[in-house]
Amino acid sequence: MRRFEPNPSDGALGFQIAPMIDVVFVIMLFFMVMAGEVKVEKELNSQLPGVAPTSGPTDFVDEQIITIAENGEVSLNDEPMDTPNSRDLPQLKSTLLRLKQNADAAKTPAIVTIISEEQAKYSRTVDVLDALAVAKIESVSFTVSEDE
Amino acid sequence: MAGGGGGDGEPEFQVAPMIDVLLTILIFFMTITSAQVLKVDKSIKLPIAPDAQKPDNQRAQAVINVRWNPAAKKAQFVFDDKAYDQSALLVPLLKHAREVGEKKITANQNPTFRALIRGDREVPALHVSLAMNAAAEAGISDISFSTVNKD
After folding, report:
1. Cα angle vertex B98, ends B95, B103, to 5°?
2. Residue B78 sits in which domain range?
3. Is B40 on the interface with A (CB under 8 A)?
4. Of A63, B46, B115, B117, which one is least surrounded by beta carbons within 10 A?
5. Which runs of E-coded beta strand occur in chain B?
6. Residue of chain A whose alpha carbon sits nearest to that of B148
7. B74-79 and B61-69: which strand pairing?
8. Which chain B residue lies closest to A128 (C-alpha atoms)?
9. pLDDT by residue (tens digit) across B51-99?
10. How many angstroms from the chain centroid is the CA of residue B106?
C-alpha cells in the first residue's frame, strides 16, 4: 500500500488570502444588510404643565385639545379627525401644520393638550404625538380623562 | 513611461491594505448593528413613530419601563431592573435618581433631568399617565416617550 507523503516541491500549504477575503466580504455584506433593517429607538418629547410666575403679565394663548377615544377615534377641539384605524392621521397632520403656521405668524406659542380615555391604547397616543412632531409643535402635555 | 511605485515592474495589487480597509468597514457595521440591538427590551414592544426625534443619549435621565401582560390585563412598572405593581412605589426612587442626575447637569447639552418612558404599545394610556404622575411627584417635568422607527 502506498503511503501519502507530502512533496516539498508542491509548495507549503500557507495562509490563503483569497478565501479569507471571500469570508470577510460575506460577513460584511451580512452586517451591511442588517444595518439597514435594524430597529432604531427614537423619542417624542413632552412637558408637564408647571407653575408659572405670577408677578409679571401673563399672555393667554390658544390651547388646542386633542382627545383620543377608547376605540381610537381622534378629535381636535371636538372635531373628529381621520378614521379610528388610520395610523398616519393625514387630516390631523395637515390641520396641525396650519395651526403651527398661524401661531408662528401671530408670534404666539402653539400649545396642545392630549386627553386620552383611560383604556385607549398608548400606541394611539404615540400616533398623535408623531403627528405633533411632524408639525414641529413642542409644547405638548398629556393626560387621561377620568371615566364617568 | 513607467507608472508610479518605482521599480521595473508594473504596480501590483496590494492585498494587505485592502484587508485593513475591509476589516475596518466590517467592525464599523458590526458596531452599529449590535449597539442598536442591545437596547431593545424583548418584553416591551415599543409603539411605532417614524417621525420621532433621534434619542439624546447625553441627557441625564431616569428610564421607566411600562410592561403589559395582556393575559392578566396587568401593567408593571420597571425601574433599575426591578418590577413594581404600583407606580407610587417609583416616586422615592425617581426622586433619588433626580437628585443624583441633577449633579451631572450642564448648561447646554444637558439642561434638565428628564424621565424617559418606554411603554408597551398595547398598554392602556392610564398606566403611562400613572408613570408620568410618579415622575411629576418626583419633581421631573420633562418627559420623553420611547418609540421605534419601524415594526
Report:
1. 140
2. 61-145
3. yes
4. A63
5. 61-69, 74-79, 82-84, 114-119, 142-148
6. A41
7. antiparallel
8. B49
9. 888 877 777 888 899 999 888 889 999 988 888 998 889 999 999 988 8
10. 20
B17 lies in some domain: no
Residue B32, burial from CB neighbour count under 10 angstroms (0-12, 13-18, 19+): middle
Partner B contacted by A66 (CB < 8 A): no
Residue B129 near residue A26 (C-beta atoms within 8 A) = no
B130: number of CA atoms within 13 Å, CB side? 22
Residue B140 within a domain:
yes
CB A66 within 8 A of CB A112: yes
Phi then psi for residue A115, to 5 deg, are -115, 115
Query: What total of structural domains would you count in chain B?
Result: 1
**CATH code (residue B124):** 3.30.420.270
Evaluate whether residue B65 is within a structural domain: yes
Asked if B131 contacts A128 with a C-beta cutoff of 8 angstroms, the reply is no
Strand, coil or helix: B69: strand
ipTM reported for the complex, 2 dp = 0.72
Topology (CATH) of A63-145: Nucleotidyltransferase; domain 5 (3.30.420)
pTM of the model: 0.74
Is A35's CB within 8 Å of B33's CB? Answer: yes
